[in-house]
Design goal:
single chain; 322 residues; alpha/beta; Rossmann fold; 13 helices; 12 strands; 39% helix; 19% strand; CofD
């Protein structure tokens, strides 16, 4: 039987490690956030009240074994001058249409996953769009992922609600089952407060993460993120993750120790102001985790990314110990 790996997150970070992982002899499941409310996803969410499709689209493409030209179409964005379609990704529109046809996002994604020959499983964390809330260190609160990011304040903690006031967020049953039956759970890489934690703080997911027998691994970000993790070390990322899970759940932290060359990252291109995440092994160990550090850096497109193949090799080594 193939070992079961569950990856939790969203955004553009997950595909970096998913692409090499799907080539391994593992049973891979991706749990994806549904709290995005910016860009094309946010517009579709507001227009037709569906789960935001952008993160799901990226994971579908990363895990698919289908025609490369079709995958390019899925990722294609209309030109900014195309009026209503401006900047919408074709894949987002397809997912929106399939959601209307099937009546919910979960069944729509399963159909598309089968159609695209996805190597593994893709589970939206909830069948309904969720609203992300944050309380900042100064006591102010904000609702909405985009608003949280744009506030550029130090976050204390986050939580999610349903779209309607007082609506309790519900996890898809398959999400809970995947976590409880996993051999290895991997968080990230990705934005800590707006991609990873929106999954973790769904009550049924948090409870499953506390109960699972799986080893749990956090892939520490290479760079800090303005308004989310300014000046955070890898241990501070870990502290926030454990706090939101409600216990010291993480067994391993994979941290990049290779220096990002000065002036390599084009912060204007990536609309970001950040610094390289510093390592603090002692503080990681205090939280009951083992730090795995090394050169996991890939420099491309004027940005600093994880080397997915090297990360995969480390995950497989951990799996051997499970």
């Amino acid at each position: 039987m193939k070992p079961k790996i569950v990856i939790i997150g969203g955004g553009s970070g997950l595909p970096v490690i998913i692409k090499p992982l799907v080539k391994q002899e593992v049973d891979l499941s991706a749990i994806v956030t549904v709290a995005d409310d910016g860009g094309s996803s946010g517009l579709l969410r507001n227009y037709i009240n569906i789960v935001p499709p952008g993160d799901i689209r990226n994971i579908l493409v990363a895990m698919a074994d289908t025609d490369a030209e079709f995958l390019k179409v899925m990722q294609y964005r209309f030109d900014a001058k195309d009026d209503f379609f401006a900047k919408h990704a074709v894949g987002n529109l397809i997912i929106a249409a399939m959601t209307e046809m099937h009546g919910n996002i979960f069944d729509a994604v399963q159909y598309l996953a089968n159609f695209m020959h996805v190597q593994g499983h893709i589970y939206p964390v909830s069948n309904e769009p969720l609203v992300l809330h944050a309380e900042f260190k100064n006591g102010n609160t904000v609702a909405g992922e985009a608003e949280i990011t744009h506030a550029h304040q130090t976050i204390d903690h986050v939580w999610v609600t349903g779209d309607e006031p007082g609506e309790e967020p519900k996890a898809a049953p398959e999400v809970v089952e995947a976590i409880l039956s996993a051999d290895l759970i991997v968080y990230g890489p990705g934005s800590l407060f707006t991609s990873i934690l929106p999954n973790v703080v769904v009550p049924e997911v948090r409870e499953a993460l506390q109960l699972t027998k799986a080893k749990q691994v956090y892939i520490a970000n290479i760079m800090t993120q303005k308004g989310e993790t300014d000046a955070y070390t890898d241990a501070q990322h870990l502290l926030a993750l454990n706090a939101h899970i409600g216990m010291q759940a993480i067994d391993y932290v994979i941290s990049n120790s290779e220096k990002v060359p000065d002036d390599f990252v084009d912060f204007q291109k990536w609309n970001e102001v950040s610094n390289q995440v510093k390592l603090d092994e002692q503080a990681v160990v205090v939280q009951g985790a083992t730090q795995i550090s090394g050169d996991f850096l890939q420099l491309r497109d004027a940005g600093a990314f994880h080397d997915g193949q090297k990360i995969t090799e480390e995950l497989l080594k951990i799996l051997e110990q499970c």
